[in-house]
Amino acid sequence: MRAWGVAALAVLLGACSSGVVPSRPGSASSAPRPVPASPSAPVRQPVAATPLAPVSAPAAPASATTAAAAGLVAGPAIERLPITMAGAARALTAFRTSCPTLVRRTDASGLTRGEDWRAACDAAKTAQDREAAQFFATHFEAVQVADGKAFATGYYEPEIAGSRTRRTGYEVPIYGRPSDLVDVDLGKFSDAMKGKSIRGRVEGTNFVPYHERTAIEQGALQGRGLEIAWASDPVELFFLQIQGSGRLRLPDGGVMRIGYASQNGRDYTGIGRLMLDRGVLKPGQASMQGIMAYLRENPAQGRDIMRENKSYVFFRELTGPGPLGAMGHPVSARGSVATDPKFVPLGAPVFLSMDRQDANGLWVAQDTGGAIKGTNRFDTFWGAGDEARAVAGGMAARGTAWLLLPKGTLARLTGN
């Protein structure tokens, strides 16, 4: 599971590159820094597109906490959606991967039951890529949540300079999950708190919030043997935490892959929005690349700004396929999207029609993110490499979204 996602880092930092993110010369440590493998990829300029209009419907009520409560209307016939053969094939592969979990899990959105997906999942086992578009048209119906107005950003799998051991130039700890970090399911204490949870630690006889980012960076976890690796640059690690998983390029040229293990339970603060609101960055400068440039050029102010995001992510080493999404399955470039599971069933296909061509097409909800909340909010996954970083770093698209749910779902939910 990802922590947050680039969230266009332009707006939401306010969520892997094949080249190491470059370190800023003359930063905190006077020790020589590892040499980056390639320069930072520039933001990719978007190709404009005209999104399909949503079905006329009211916005979700402020009180709505699930898709079922937000309001549902029928979308267009799937045959009429501009689904490409390649996009349908990618979505079919991602959907097939999700099926073993999809038919068993409880849907937090209130829209589907595990058995609802069984027919489509059974058919997906033998469906061919060339038949993918027809597969979705046969087994699914398009459903619009509330007014259907969508916002999409992007994330990727970054690569940064790192080491398995502390050494000159690698002095920023990357922590595994602490043993005193406790998850509490509040629903076990009160039916009114069902579906809610908190994280913290026990201090004497009290349950208190876990250490925030500043305390951790100042040494709250030192001496406990929690370091799974060491990064060369705190800015690199901060952005890797936002992505939730990534690659460490080791001094010998090898790669160590790490993924999300947990988070300290503190609220996430998007520094991109914060920097825009304060006038530190001007509109148009708040891409991931622009934010990183400011943090490196202004190390003291940059450190303080990063610490205003009290959330802190813990990692584990990944040894199998990955990166892994919230369903526990590998996410796929241009096939997987992160969503709020209260508004999109994890494992469900989604069709996005946006004002940016890159984001258009079929995706499958296989991940979540701390900044990805509410109706019709999506974070598209672009894989690893310079191209992925360039697209994800500047992704901010608006348009229309329709969920693809098993046929008959809307009639069952609405009684029509």
Architecture overview:
The chain has 416 residues and is α+β, with helices and mostly antiparallel strands. The protein has one domain: Barwin-like endoglucanases, CATH 2.40.40. Helix content is 22%, strand content 24%. It has a six-stranded mixed β-barrel. Strand 7 and strand 8 form a beta hairpin. Helix 2 crosses helix 4 and helix 8 packs across helix 9. The longest helix is centred in the first third of the chain and has 18 residues.
Question: What labels describe this entry?
Answer:
single chain; 416 residues; alpha+beta; Barwin-like endoglucanases; six-stranded mixed beta sheet; cell wall biogenesis/degradation; 3D_dom; lyase
In summary, what is this structure?
This protein has 416 residues and is of the alpha+beta class. The protein has helices at 67-70, 85-102, 118-124, 132-139, 213-217, 234-243, 271-277, 288-297, 299-307, 386-393, 409-414; strands at 72-74, 140-145, 149-157, 159-163, 172-175, 182-185, 197-203, 206-208, 227-231, 245-249, 255-263, 313-318, 336-338, 349-354, 361-367, 377-384, 396-406.
| Overall outline | globular
Query: What class would the helix/strand composition place it in?
Result: alpha+beta
The beta-strand count equals 17
Number of domains: 1
List segments where confidence is low: pLDDT < 50 over at least 5 consecutive residues: 3-39
Task: Give the proportion of residues in helices.
Answer: 10-25%
**How does the major sheet shape up?**
6 strands, mixed, barrel
Largest sheet, order of strands side by side? Answer: 3-16-13-15-14-17
**CATH architecture label:** Beta Barrel
Task: Report the C-alpha radius of gyration, rounded.
Answer: 21 Å
Summed over residues and divided by their number, the pLDDT gives a mean of 88
Helix and strand sequence = HEHHHEEEEEEEHEHEEHHHEEEEEHEH
